[in-house]
Every structure is written in C-alpha cells, then in structure tokens.
Amino acid sequence: MSDGYHHGNLRQALIDAGIKIINESGEDGLSLRKVAAACGVSHAAPYAHFKDKEELVEAIKASVNEQFMEELEQAAAGAKNAEGALINMGRSYVTFFVRNPDYFRFLFGSQNIIAHPRPDKRFKEDYPPFTLLKDTYQKYLKEKKLKKKKEEQELDVIRLWSSAHGLAAIACMPGVETSFDWEEKKIWAVLLR
Amino acid sequence: MSDGYHHGNLRQALIDAGIKIINESGEDGLSLRKVAAACGVSHAAPYAHFKDKEELVEAIKASVNEQFMEELEQAAAGAKNAEGALINMGRSYVTFFVRNPDYFRFLFGSQNIIAHPRPDKRFKEDYPPFTLLKDTYQKYLKEKKLKKKKEEQELDVIRLWSSAHGLAAIACMPGVETSFDWEEKKIWAVLLR
DNA sequence: CGCATATCTTGACAATGTAAAGATGTGCGG
DNA sequence: CCGCACATCTTTACATTGTCAAGATATGCG
User: Fold this and answer.
1) Residue–nucleotide distance: B190 CA to D15 C1' (Å)
2) Contact, A3 CB vs strand D, < 7 Å
3) Nearest to A167 by CA among A143, A189, A141, A145
C-alpha cells in the first residue's frame, strides 16, 4: 500500500522532508515543489494534505516546536527542585537554538510566529513552553515560600522568558559564535544574575 | 532631468518605496517588481542600482537601522547620566519595535540579520546600536566608579542587550498586545529589576 | 462487485527574480 | 558643437514557484 500511486503516509513524509530542507538550506530553500520532489511525488500532491504552503509550514513549525518542548520538559524534569528547573530550562532554551540556529529564525522569524496550538489564540496563553515556564515559576514560588502580587509575578515570568529568548536571539546571529562562545557556564552566568 | 527616461534618484526612491510596502504589507509583500512599479519604472530598472533583490533589501535594512539608531542616540542623549541613558535606551529599544513590529521581523527575522555596516563583520563589533550600548555601559561604570573584569563586563552588556531584545521580541509577537500592554512603566519595570 | 471518496498526476496560469539585448539620455574629450 | 563612452532604463525571455482545475488511480464500504 505504500508504493505506486498512493504513498502511505505522505503528510508526515512532507513534514519530515521540509525539516530536512530547512536544516540544509534554511527556510529560503523551502518550496512546495522541492518538498514534493523530495518525497518522490508530483508538485500538486501536497494539496491533498495541506490547503496552503502556509499550512505545511505551520505543520513543520508544530513539529519543531514539539521537539523544542520535549527538550524543555526534559531539562525541567532533570532538576532537583523548581529553581533548578528554571535554570535548566533557560539553558536548554539557548542551547537548543544554538545547536540549530535555522530553527530559531524559522520559528520566530516570520509573521505568524507560533502556530503550534492555534494561531488565533494568544501566545502567552497557548504556547506550551510558556505554560511550562509559568507552572515551574509557580512551583518555584511555593518552594521558596514567596508571596508576590499577580502583577509582579507576570513581570517575573516575562523577565525570565525575555532574557532567555533574547540570549538565544543574539547567540543565533551570524558572526557571533566566534567572538563569544556560548558554552554552558556563560549562558548560565547570563541567565542567572 | 527627473522625468522621462531618467528618474533622477531612483536608488533612494526604491528604498523609500520598499519601506512603505513593508509598513503596509510586511516583508512578504515586498517584491522587486512591485517596488519598481511603485516608482513608475520597469521591473528590471532596479538592476541598474542593485545587483540583487537581496542588495535592495539590505539597503532598506540599513535605512531602517539608521532610523532605529537615531532613536537610540536620542534616548541616550536625553538622560542626565549614563545610568539614565542605559534605561532610556532599553525603553526605546522596545518601544521602537512595539510601534512598528514589522520592522523587528524585517531586521532580525531573516538569515543575514544585520547587514548595516558590512555583512562580513561580526555583529557585536560592528552593529552601531551595540557599540552605543557598550560605550554607554563604560560611562556607567566610570560614573558609578565600579571596577569589573573584562569578562564580567561583557556578560553585563550581553545581559542588557538580550533582555531588551527579548522583551522586544515578545512584545512584537502577534496576539500579545491585548493581554499585556507594553506601556512605559511595565517596560521599565521589566528592564530595570 | 460497484461506487464514493481520498489521493495523486498532468497541465495550465500568474507572480516573481533574473539575465540578455537594445534603447535613451548624460556628460566629457575633442 | 560633435560624437562617443557610459549610466540608466526598457523590452523580451526564461526558470522557479504557488495555486488551481480536470482527470486518473487506488481504497474501502455498502
């Protein structure tokens, strides 16, 4: 059932091929026709599974986001307490994108930034990594027996997020890796304060 | 000399038209042919001034970067001391991109991030806003009579930059503006700690 | 078995980037 | 003033790409 006219699981194959192409030549190298060709299928075949090129791109983003989310969860799980989880997550946030800078631009570079769950939902309410951060932060507060106002809590979370995200952004910029290498200790030092 | 076959100053006109288009429809709406049409000129005319579409895009980026840099300089100049300059710059960094989110994606979203001075040069050595930040930070150290190791200084600068940049990135994400509005007080609170 | 449907192919079209060849104006040396 | 080199612009052409429509092919269900 997987040969000849019908592919078997073309949808996933297209997503995988898309990821491969992005890893090799960045998002610019990504075209519907190339993805189709990489799956040995005609140029219009993707339209049986995706309404748009955009819909394919969003599916690829979702896949990359899952991979990203897994690393974050693993980082959080590998800590002894909530504070350690926060630190680990921050480090993972940066190292994940340092390892594949194209992913950073792919996920955060275009218009509709994160379409993982639903594009119509707000980023801060619906983006799983952000939810994980908020939950971990809450555990951290309990752990340290800290009482803070809602507003202050939100600022804290934004602070954590933006420092990790900003650091990842800088680390992903071309021509940065040589003059400042992002080994773990330095990342840790920047994030921690 | 400005009518008929020769345009007068087509190069600048193309850049301006490009900026206008980006403001209206984002970078996706930007095509060489549209830019040319907006200047009332044939679709191949730009090739007399730019080798590539990319070269035009880089010129547009340079122009936007100049605008950005001006605002940062103004923000720094409007402070009484270096510490105030740092705070003002951080606030301006965010508000500039909050005012035009398309610029953020345009400047930092694509592959060759910042080609303002020369793409072959390193970001941290050659990007004017970064230089301004480093200088202001040095003044701040003198002002406060602080002595720090080179390494620690570099970390501080990265910290300042990445927190502002990360905050701008989050603020520019679609669907964020409603649930958390980036009025000056909040930006200030996030950046300052 | 036969049919509705999902899946895929083929062919076409418009938009785009780009190159080549030629037209047109500008300015400079004579 | 003339003519010529050069910059600028147009026209034409072509490859790539996203998208659509029409048709072919397989799959599963009654």
Assistant:
1) 51
2) no
3) A189
Q: Angle of helix A53-77 relative to helix A101-108, nearest 10 degrees?
A: 120
Provide the 8-state DSSP code for B12.
Answer: H
- pLDDT tens across A163-182, in order? 889 888 888 887 654 444 55
**CA–CA separation, B100 and B27 (whole Å):** 13
Q: What separation, in Å, do the N-terminal and C-terminal C-alpha atoms of chain A show? A: 57
Rounded Cα–Cα distance for residues B14 and B39 (Å):
7
Cα(B15)–Cα(B38) distance, integer angstroms: 11
CB of B32 nearer than 7 A to strand C: yes
What pLDDT was estimated at residue A183? 57
- In sequence order, what are the residues at sequence separation of 6 or more whose Cβ sits closer than 8 angstroms to the Cβ of residue B44? B36
Contact (CB<8Å) A174/B112: yes
Contacts of A88 (CB under 8 A, 6+ apart): A75, A76, A78, A79
What tens digit of pLDDT does each residue of B98-151 get?
888 889 999 988 755 444 344 454 555 678 999 999 999 999 999 999 999 988
pLDDT at B186: 60
Interface test with A, best of B102, B153, B162, B193 (most A CBs within 10 A): B162
A43 touches strand D (CB under 7 A): yes
Using an 8 Å Cβ cutoff, are A97 and A171 in contact? Answer: yes
Cα angle for residues B72, B109, A44 (degrees, 5° grid): 160
Q: Which pLDDT band, with edges at 50, 70 and 90, does B155 fall under?
A: confident
